Amino acid sequence: MKNQKNKNLVSWDDHLDQKYGKIGSPSRDKYEQEFEAFKLGVLIQEARKKRSLTQEELALKVGTTKNYISRIENNASDIRLSTLMRIITDGLGGHLKLTLDLK
């Protein structure tokens, strides 16, 4: 019975291949870019909550609006690098570290 259940399991990579195409395909690249933007919003939201800030408090520290912070956290808005830097440094008291992954 246990082997029967395992036949239906697929790895996460196989699932992504089936749903979005192989790595390097246009649809998979689009998925990967959108997922990175989603992760950024989640990271900002988690850091904001860790600092016990509301979206409005963070917005006031950064010089933007609560609505804009909400849109960033919910992946509904593109974010400029300068704004991201202000959110992280001025709003959250952190430092931004970027990495570049070339293929």
Descriptive key words:
103 residues; mainly alpha; 434 Repressor (Amino-terminal Domain); 6 helices; elongated
- When the domains are counted, the total is 1
Shape from CA axes?
elongated
Q: Give the SSE string.
A: HHHHHH
Mean pLDDT: 90
Do you know the CATH architecture? Orthogonal Bundle
Uncertain ranges: none
CATH level 4 superfamily: lambda repressor-like DNA-binding domains
Beta-strand content bin: under 5%
Secondary structure category: mainly alpha
Give the CATH class. Answer: Mainly Alpha
Largest sheet properties: none
Query: What Rg is obtained from the alpha carbons, in whole angstroms?
Result: 18 Å
Q: DSSP helix count? A: 6
| CATH fold topology | 434 Repressor (Amino-terminal Domain)
How would you summarize what this structure contains?
This protein is mostly helical.
Architecture overview:
The chain is 64% helix and 0% strand. It is built from six helices and no strands. The protein has a single domain (11-91), classed as 434 Repressor (Amino-terminal Domain) (Orthogonal Bundle). It is mainly alpha-helical. The radius of gyration is 18 Å and the shape is elongated. The chain has helices spanning 2-6, 12-20, 26-50, 55-62, 66-73, 81-91.
